[in-house]
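Model it.
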Amino acid sequence: MATTMGSTAKALDSRVEVGGLPRLDRFFPDCALGLVELVAQKSFGLPNLKMCWFANTFEYRAPHPPAWLNANRVELAGRLFIAGTPREEALQRLRRFYGIRVEKLVFDDFDALIAEVHRSLSRGTPAMSEFDMALLLPPGRSNGRVQPHMIGVIGCDVPGGTLRIAEQLHGEVIIPLSQYQTAFHRFQEQRCEFSILRCVSDGPEERPRFTQEEIASAVRGALDNLTSSSLHLGLNALRRAGRDVAEAIEVERAAFAIPGQWIFSHDRHALRGGLPYWHEAGVITKIQQGELDKVLAQAFRVWFQIDMTIERALHRKDLEQMREASTLWAKVVMLEERLAALLEGVVS
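Modeled.
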């Protein structure tokens, strides 16, 4: 049953907004952790959280031809994604290295949700909230299901019916409060938890740093994935996904998104941000740091170019743009192979 704005929400008749925020890192590989980084910078004065994130893996769930595309006809019926549990590992490092834990508040009442958003903003802290990414996509791109996403609510004007949000896809924008309410209802209707995250500090005490052994262990774990003989893992998965995309383009004669693929430009960006910590721990030399940084920067650019080329292809329904994205895939495979070789050098 639809919820309406009740007396609690209507009583919030003041406009509240958080100012002086650092810029949201729109390329953090996890939308929730990107917002945690923003809040940690604002509330605890931390420079960044890049020591937390390490993935650099691939896993691929292939389509089953002749069904190359999903029912919505704008997505590959397969998925390329990061293997393992990088978010859970990042949250553990967040607690260990930065003394910050993330608590989750779940809401089943919209009035209570808005009241919590207002309280958080009144304390000078953005409200890190669930949202439905489907509501931010161009028409025709949604698959009909809730697409969980996290936004930072940085301003709330209940009388004016608007929210100001910080969000990875669009940056800082104003959305109707009714759109936020629609997202809440969609979560409820599809039996998904709608939550707000909150950062809590363990206090100012000396924290450990990344050790050589920990970094080397993480790199070895990534290399186990990258060099796997499985066609569903590592560089084999990346190559197979490229072949499938090329074939799907010619069979379907259509533009389509590749579910999960967006994260790899972001993952390369985050790994670049972590390299200074690797050097600080003595795992890599300045020369190695420079070599890794160069290849990661190139890989980021090509992955992002693939993202943008596919977006143009979808917007224009342009088959040639899709073919260009497929051509770029071969280039990114070579860069990922080069990156894997450099990582081998780190632990050899």
